[in-house]
Amino acid sequence: MPPTTHPAPAPPAATTSRLPRTDALEVAVDLALLAPSVHNTQPWRLVLHDDRLDLHADRTRQLPTLDPVGRALALSVGAALFNARVALAAAGWSVVTERLPDARDPDLMAVVRPVDGASDPELAALAPAVPQRRTNRRAFSDEELPDDALRALADAVAAEDAELVVVRQEHHRQLVARLTQQADAVQNADAAYRAELRAWTTRSAASRDGVPTSAVPHVDGRQRDDLPLRDFDSAGAGGLPPETRSTMRQTLVLLATARDDQAAWLRAGEALERVLLELTRRGWAASPLTQAIEVPLTRTQLRSALTWTSHPQALLRIGRAEATPAPPHRLRDDVVENSTRPPETEPRPLPTPPVGPQHETRAADGRARRRPVSDGRGGTTWV
Predict the structure, then answer these.
(1) Which of 166, 160, 180 is nearest to 269 (CA)?
(2) Using CA atoms, how far apart are residues 376 and 382, in angstroms rounded to an integer?
């Protein structure tokens, strides 16, 4: 498959000099590892080279019951790929991305190369949102996302070769609710699905993966949501309030792609992460409602009603909500190969971006923009 180049507008005049290539690639790894993934499986392996970053699928972390064909795994790797692109843009580099570059190695999902040229200020502006993004399963307000924000999301998704469908009409909202309820019931009736879910929600702290109890609502049997959230409270120890208020009145958007193969799934993951970061930057929360897409029958019905020729890949509810705790992340040294950093025993989180005009550069639209730089100790900070 030939390389896909992402042309970028001219850099803003106030942008500072870019990071050295090797430092920029290390930062790209930092941000890639913060990507969302199905059940927080983090199903990727990252390999650094002097001039590029390779992203591989880790099939040992694929969910055989929920995700037998690897669609959710590819979306997860796509989200990590997008974060890497954001990091390189914020570091001042133009980016060339090769997706599925080697037919002999289908698990090599992408190769990302920082190259000479103008960086993309729209991607760079999303970098501070990466460590702030959360999958939020709290109760959402009924405040709907404004039309101008929805248009911006649609443009962002289109830039990633995907389509954003806003579920507006009442009968479509009712259909989405019915199909989500139906799919949720089908999944929960499957003993293998329940066992797989339990395996990823009762992980030891040492595993640094899976869905922690601190990030899921406590299920007390009284939930009657229009759009049921997945029941991650397999141990009855959910740390969030039981009331989730997942209703048809909230903003619902569906991401779809023209094709339905591994390349399309990878792009859908990039589009999904772009949406999540745009929402984070604007102060909104999002939560996936993917049951109806995971069950073949309900996915077909969803497609025939809402996307027609396109294939549904992700369904999100959007609203205002309090923040939730950060999920665990695997040790960098367990996931990354060929890093030039010294070995670490604890993950090194990205610091909160500094605040103040002395740290600001300006994107093409005049908004403040920050870039990652080395902190001198093998970590990353934002200036």
Answers:
(1) 160
(2) 13
297 shares a domain with 178? yes
Amino acid of residue 2: P
Q: How many domains, in total, are found in the chain?
A: 2
Residue 163 sits in the same domain as residue 301: yes
Q: Walk along the chain (383 residues) and give the pLDDT tens digit of each residue.
A: 444 433 433 333 334 478 999 999 999 999 999 999 999 999 999 999 999 999 999 999 999 999 999 999 999 999 999 999 999 999 999 999 999 999 999 999 999 999 999 999 999 999 999 999 999 999 898 899 999 999 999 999 999 999 999 999 999 999 999 999 999 999 999 999 999 999 999 999 999 999 999 888 888 766 678 888 898 988 888 888 888 878 878 999 999 999 999 999 999 999 999 999 999 999 999 999 999 999 999 999 999 999 989 999 999 999 999 999 999 999 999 999 999 987 664 444 443 333 322 233 334 333 444 555 444 333 455 45
> What residues contact 15, with CB distance under 8 A and at least 6 apart?
92, 119, 361, 369, 371
Domain that holds residue 341: 4-133+327-382
Domain of residue 279, CATH code = 3.40.109.10
